[in-house]
Design brief:
Elements: H1 2-22, E1 27-31, H2 34-43, H3 45-48, E2 53-57, H4 62-65, H5 68-78, E3 83-87, H6 101-106, E4 111-113, H7 119-126, E5 131-138, H8 143-155, E6 161-167, H9 170-178, E7 187-191, H10 192-198, H11 205-208, E8 214-217, H12 221-237, E9 242-244, H13 256-265, E10 266-273, E11 277-286, H14 295-298, H15 314-318, H16 350-357
Parallel strand pairs: 1-2, 1-7, 3-4, 3-5, 5-6, 7-8, 8-9
Antiparallel strand pairs: 10-11
Length: 365
């Protein structure tokens, strides 16, 4: 074990030295994956890199980018007497305009944590007199499993299962960032989990249109350091392309079967992102063939007028414009136990990671 640790330290030290040699100006590299965000903080990679290399967290946490409008709609549905809400656990604590799913659950509403969208189908079968609404939140990583669940509901003729969809696509969000003159980014760490599904092709515009480097990265500390090293080599050579550091998992064309299921069930649509606003073709709505499962189309609902919390700078954090510590609420009235903004709720949120790991200092001997 000690030999392995020494080898890891030696490889990391080599990569850090090479990154320092290759980069001769200040650069900002953005990760757009919540798992990368947590891995970077946990391993202290920000502190290990040369000062001229700044890592910036982008809109990579699906819970964080889900706007209050969606949350308020979910809460309104939860308050209907004949509705059961099914959701992954990290959605419960996300604050809406005036409440949260956690608070509504405490009031006695039927909100159930599930570990797979398929769990919702059994709940629907067990409760035929209830409408079961699954909160479908996530990026390309989770949308195929939700699509497979909808296909199964169709095949099994389950009439009381519905989806409130907030699935989002990563490439349009990256392009929206690149079109924002306020945001200065010199390269991207691309999300390995997303690229398992999509492959590399959807991200080629970063190099071809915007002449910036981008590397698909794994999630171990050495994966991330190697990906940054690959970006540094591209910047040094001024030869920009999409590279894949995570070849042991990500294939060039991605998961073709998952893509096929997504294309069958979903169609691209405008989507509202916290901090970025409405981005064309960045969301997934159900196609007409599966519209019977669309909660918004099938179940009337009235919700409150949505507002973002006063003073919260989550939107700017998600765009890489400010650090969490620039927010006046951070660490004071906004903590993981009492979150004001969504970026402090999810374990993959930038504010939550900064709160837990941000003050640590790391060194390689």
């Amino acid at each position: 074990m000690s030999q392995q640790v020494n080898e890891t330290k030696q490889i990391a030290a080599f990569l850090l030295k090479e990154i320092d040699r290759l980069i001769d100006r200040p650069v900002r590299i953005m990760e757009v994956c919540g798992t990368h965000t947590v891995s970077i903080f946990r391993a202290g990679i920000r502190q290990l890199l040369p000062e001229k290399v700044e890592l910036v967290s982008g809109p990579g946490c699906p819970v964080c980018v889900t706007p209050n409008d969606y949350l308020d709609t979910a809460i309104a549905y939860a308050r209907q007497e004949d509705v059961i809400i099914t959701t992954f656990g990290d959605m419960l604590k996300v604050p809406g305009t005036s409440s949260s799913l956690n608070q509504v659950k405490a009031e006695g509403r039927d909100i159930r944590i599930i570990y797979s969208p398929m769990d919702s189908l059994q709940i629907a079968k067990d409760n035929p007199d209830k409408k079961v609404i699954f909160l479908a939140v996530g990026f390309e990583t989770t949308s195929p499993t939700a699509a497979a669940t909808i296909l199964a509901a169709k095949q099994q003729n389950i009439k009381n299962f519905f989806v409130l969809t907030a699935h989002k696509l990563t490439p349009p969000a990256i392009e929206a960032l690149l079109c924002d003159e306020k945001i200065k980014i010199d390269g991207f760490l691309l999300p390995g989990h997303v690229c398992v599904i999509t492959g590399e092709e959807p991200f080629t515009f970063i190099a071809q249109k915007y002449h910036l480097p981008a590397v698909v990265a794994g999630f171990e500390p050495l994966d991330i350091l190697q990906a940054i090293y690959m970006i540094a080599k591209q910047i040094h050579a001024k030869d920009f392309k999409i590279e894949n550091q995570y070849k042991r998992v990500v294939k060039t064309l991605g998961n073709m079967q998952a893509q096929k299921i997504m294309d069958l069930v979903y169609k691209k649509a405008p989507a509202n992102w916290r901090g970025l606003g409405v981005i064309e073709n960045s969301g997934l709505d159900l196609t007409d063939a599966f519209s019977e499962f669309d909660a918004l189309k099938m179940i009337p609902v009235n919700k409150e007028i949505s507002k973002e919390p006063a003073g919260c700078r989550c939107g700017e954090v998600l765009r890489g414009l400010v650090k969490p510590t620039d927010c006046p609420l951070f660490g004071k009235v906004c903590t993981p136990n009492h979150a004001v903004g969504s970026c402090m709720v999810s374990v993959e949120g930038t504010c939550a990671a900064w709160y837990k790991y941000g003050s640590r200092v790391f060194h390689f001997e």
